[in-house]
Amino acid sequence: MGKMYYQEDMETASRETMIKLQNERLVKNVKHAYDNIAAYREKCKETGVEPGDIKSIDDLHKLPFLSKDDLRDAYPYGYLALPLEDVVRIQSTSGTTGKRVVAFYTQADIDLWDECCARAIVAAGGTNKDVVHVSYGYGLFTGGPGLNGGSHKVGSLTLPMSSGNTERQLQFMIDLEATILCCTPSYAAFLAESLHSAGLRDQIKLKAGIFGAEAWSEEMRRDIEKNLGIKAYDIYGLTETSGPGVSFECEEQTGMHINEDHFIPEIIDPDTGEVLPLGEKGELVFSCISKQAFPLLRYRTRDICVLTRNECSCGRTLIKMSKPMGRSDDMLIIRGVNVFPSQIETVLMKEGYPANYQIILDRVNHTDTFEVQVEMTPEMFSDEVRIVAEKEKELLTALRAMLGISPKVTLMNPRSITRSEGKAVRVIDNRKI
Amino acid sequence: MSINQISVFVENKPGKLADITEILAKAEVDLRAMSIADTQDFGILRLIVDNPHAALTALRDNGCTVNVTSVLAVEMPDKPGGLAGVLRVLADKNVNVEYLYAFISRSKGNAYVILRVEDNEEAMAVLKEAGIGIVTAEQIYS
């Protein structure tokens, strides 16, 4: 396979060209954000920095950080930098109530997002002759719309499957001879399993997969590659910066190239905020230097990873990030959905259960299992199974409404959930990723 | 004349039932009758014991979730159709039985059944009218 790029000038730009472009775009977008977002202007004033202080990317560290809390406090329109008539779309983070973040897009913002995804598809060997099967969720979640848009840009035939309805997924994958599958890694593993058990494994034409939105191990990658007979590529992104395609893997599979003509990465010490040198592990921070509607600067992703800038055999000069190795906050990503333990606590308190609970995560057959252990109270108890089961169901319904996914609820005796010295152990994550 | 039934929440884990019976053994509580209702996720153990107060205290002290319900103990001839006769009487008067379970009777020729109904007074009146024997707490605890 020859070397293929979607936007070769950007993907293989010299360091000088890239820095020059980043400098121009950064200076412009800092001024744009400062002039048009009151909350951001306030934040800059508190930090004692003005747009004039930012003359190049070397000054980036002078800007204040932004976090999910800033966006939540400003919900919904506080960080929108343009009048509504210029904006055409919103997307929202997968974590639901309590931590909702809404991101805005102009048509140009969507185009550049789609182009980022197109780069990922081309890096995975995609061309206009391919059939791209998108099984990410469509809707507020960025997965479906992002890869869908990228596939259109490449000119591939796009199957907007969304998630669910396995039988139909397999039928279309076979009948339309899909060649590239885009979904979460756990859904890919599930589809592979379904194909095998239906005896249809030899009828698919897949050659590549682009999988993201949740953490996955190299072992899982090898499993999926073997079971589907494909090469599996990682992709990364977050709603706050656009969606998937902020970074993507090339055939070397040694980290994801960041589209740094749009997103400038930094690695910081999550405790001190100090910028760390390349190669050191820390929290990933992004500055969006091209997007207009939602131009977040120095946004803290809370993902822990490493940046490296080595020559890549694919010819791309874009900086690489490792797979996220963890979080600097307590957010859990379960089956691709963002879950905060505090959301579970809120539901338990509201439903009259003690706030002493435990979340137990595991990964069975490449799918996350999610159990919430809850302590019973005498008030919740009855001699009749029907009444206890009903209360259990009410709790499950409330948890599902809050989280967007269903845990398994296990009722426990009062005070039976381990209380350790000092900090309560709320989460036991047995997933090896 | 209703009697006190103790219900205990049982986590769905090996050994939990053994733990509960051991707690009762240590408190020198004698079991008179029992039944267990279970779902996929948990169980409810229902007990009639000789000393409800001692049983409750011991279970609560050991971190069990318990509650007390008034149930009826009914006496009937220990022969085919004995229970059917009792249930027909209740059915004819539209008394709904939530659940029931049997236990070893010490009175020769008779069987005891524990009945859980919504309204004990109403059920008792219906049973008495039909001449069905109600077992008293004293008879059970002694």
Features:
heterodimer, A: 433 residues, alpha/beta, Rossmann fold, GMP Synthetase, Chain A, domain 3, nine-stranded mixed β-sheet, four-stranded antiparallel β-sheet, 11 helices, 21 strands, globular, B: 142 residues, alpha+beta, VC0802-like, 2 domains, seven-stranded antiparallel β-sheet, 5 helices, 33% helix
Instruction: Report the helical percentage of chain B.
Output: 25-40%
Mean of all residue-level pLDDT scores of chain B: 90
The CATH topology assignment of the largest domain in chain B is VC0802-like
Low-confidence stretches of chain A: none
CATH superfamily of the largest domain in chain B: VC0802-like
Instruction: Report helical residue fraction of chain A.
Output: 25-40%
Please state the structural category of chain A: alpha/beta
Q: H/E element string of chain B?
A: EHEEHEHEEHEH
Number of domains of chain B: 2
The 3D shape of chain A can be described as globular
- Strand-pairing-aware structural class of chain B: alpha+beta
CATH superfamily of the largest domain in chain A: ANL, N-terminal domain
User: Which word captures the global form of chain B?
Assistant: globular
CATH class assignment of the largest domain in chain B: Alpha Beta
